[in-house]
Design goal:
Elements: E1 21-23, E2 26-28, E3 33-37, E4 44-49, H1 53-70, H2 75-91, H3 93-104, H4 108-128, E5 135-137, E6 144-152, E7 156-159, H5 167-179, E8 183-186, H6 192-204, E9 212-214, H7 220-229, E10 235-239, H8 242-253, E11 258-262, E12 267-271, H9 277-289, E13 299-305, H10 309-321, H11 341-356, E14 360-363, E15 376-379, H12 386-389, E16 396-402, H13 405-413, E17 417-418, E18 420-424, H14 428-437, E19 442-445, E20 460-461, E21 464-465, H15 470-475, E22 478-486
Parallel strand pairs: 7-8, 7-10, 8-9, 10-11, 12-13, 12-18, 13-16, 15-16, 18-19
Antiparallel strand pairs: 1-2, 3-4, 5-6, 6-22, 11-21, 14-15, 17-20
Helix pairs in contact: 1-7, 2-4, 2-5, 2-6, 3-4, 3-6, 4-5, 9-10
The structure holds succinic acid.
């Protein structure tokens, strides 16, 4: 493939957000800054404030002060502000999609979809805020009344990843705010602009000072150290790698914080002998190549029943060849660059390792230019190759055949992570048996894109703890308080 032609819209640069840090309700231009790079050209596009210990301490004070007021604000008022935030996010869809295209290379058309997804969490939790009732529990003692209430856990420290710069922010922040918590957000080093713009929209919607603060930083360690050690911060929520998640889990134990960890996956996509192959091809492509393969729930290893493997590979190859690689600012682009050279190096390493082990490249297989990697289809892959044993986070689809449902399940479950898995079958009994046997937090049955704001998202084993989305997502920000009343 030849080098990628720049989109005409690359010449124009709409608002790149305030580009600072949001502490309390003021935009702070710190003396120390760090650059945000255009993922496609590598050029710096903005400078943002580089927060360190001092800013973390200040933000914690603001979060604690704001919490005292926000928790006492009626659910109706919190809901109305969230609803106005939703309206503003929707109204700025194009601008937010553009920011994401610049800072992490997500194609704008896909970015518009992410903005809708991100706004969906805000809309859902604006509604949920009003439904946080309690319960009464019958007592065996006639003179007692037992009440169970929900209370916000307190100020929250949220760490979000670069692969969904908008949706992972709202998936954490919206339920926290709806529950009555305040949030200090540390966006990924690569993608602070979208987070800052979302926070600006929150203030415009009437979000009170200190309820949402954003601390960009080039090195997350000093900020995290302060906030995790601070006993007033009652909850830590993190999306990112299993390795970092485990470290944060240990650190958070010292102040006994509530914790949600959404960590790595390595999703198996099982196509059974009776599957509708055309539908499976369409959906596996949507799952595998979403965000150029850089999502935790992307199909990462494709297992096809031996009786259908040849047919599947032939049709899938046609789909993969037709994917449009290009400038993320071009609305027709389906695959953009990888986020950075480390991401690219991992993909190159996985493909090289698979080829050395005997895998065959059916489509793609190489670097195009910069951080672009060709959409790739490999066959003849097997357990023991890096690509079948680890998360690749790139546009490479490895296919392996299997002979029985038991074998497919054994292969699917033989990894230390358990976020998302997929099964393709027309047999209802098999659909139930296989989905129940899969050790995963999310299972898509004939569905390659199961994530949605009203459903629980999260994994088992090394994929983390807790759930985001739906009513489960707001429970993560609520403590249960039981009140026993002895009648006089
Ligand atoms: C992720 O990659 O963690 C998020 C994917 C999604 O919400 O669909």
């Amino acid at each position: 493939m030849t080098a990628i032609a720049p989109a005409p819209s690359r010449a124009t640069l709409p608002s790149l957000g305030p580009g600072l840090a949001l502490i309390g309700d003021s935009w702070q231009a710190l003396p120390g800054t760090f650059p945000v790079h255009d993922a496609t050209t590598g050029e710096p596009v903005a400078e943002v404030s580089n927060c360190r210990e001092q800013e973390a301490r200040l933000a914690a004070d603001h979060a604690v002060a704001a919490f005292a007021v926000w928790r006492a604000t009626s659910a109706w008022e919190r809901s109305a502000i969230l609803r106005r935030w939703f309206d503003r996010i929707v109204a700025h869809e194009g601008e937010l999609a553009h920011l994401m295209a610049r800072e992490m290379g997500k194609p704008v058309t896909e970015g518009r979809g992410e903005v809708k997804y991100a706004a969906g969490f805000v809309e859902f939790y604006a509604e949920e805020a009003k439904r946080l009732g309690g319960e009464t529990v019958p007592s065996q003692f006639p003179g007692k009344r037992l009440l169970v209430n929900h209370k916000p856990v307190g100020p929250v420290y949220a760490i979000t990843p670069w692969n969904f710069p908008a949706a992972m922010v709202t998936r954490k922040v919206a339920p926290a705010l709806a529950a009555g918590c305040t949030v200090i957000l540390k966006p990924a080093e690569a993608t602070p602009l979208t987070a800052l713009r979302l926070a600006e929209l929150w203030l415009e919607a009437g979000g009170p000072a200190g309820t949402l603060q954003v601390l960009p930083c080039a090195d997350p360690v000093p900020v995290s150290r302060v906030l995790i050690a601070d006993p007033r911060i009652r909850k830590l929520t993190f999306t990112g790698s299993t390795e970092v998640g485990m470290r944060l889990y240990a650190q958070a134990a010292t102040t006994m914080k509530r914790l949600s960890l959404e960590l790595g996956g390595h999703a198996p996509f099982i196509i059974c002998a009776d599957a509708d192959i055309d539908a499976a091809v369409t959906q596996v492509a949507a799952s595998k190549f979403r965000n150029a393969g850089q999502t935790c729930v992307c199909a990462n290893r494709i297992y096809v029943h031996e009786s259908r493997c040849e047919e599947f590979v032939e049709r899938f190859a046609t789909t993969v060849r037709a994917l449009r690689v290009g400038d993320p600012l071009d609305p027709s682009t389906q695959i953009g660059p990888l986020v950075n050279s480390e991401g690219l190096d991992k993909v190159i390493d996985h493909v090289r390792d698979a080829r050395a082990g005997g895998a065959e490249v059916v489509v793609g297989g190489g670097v195009i230019s910069g951080n672009y990697f060709e959409p790739t289809l490999l066959t003849g892959t097997r357990t023991g190759m890096k690509i079948m044993d680890e998360e690749t986070f790139g546009p490479v689809a490895p296919v392996m055949s299997f002979t029985s449902d038991d074998e497919a399940l054994r292969l699917a479950n033989a990894v230390p992570v358990g976020l998302a898995a997929y099964v393709w079958t027309r047999d209802l009994g098999r659909a139930f048996r296989m989905s129940e046997a899969l050790e995963y937090g999310i299972v898509g049955v004939n569905d390659g894109l199961p994530a949605t704001p009203q459903a629980p998202f999260g994994g088992v084993k090394n994929s983390g703890i807790g759930r985001e989305g739906g009513r489960w997502g707001i429970e993560e920000y609520l403590d249960v308080q039981y009140i026993s009343i002895q009648l006089p």
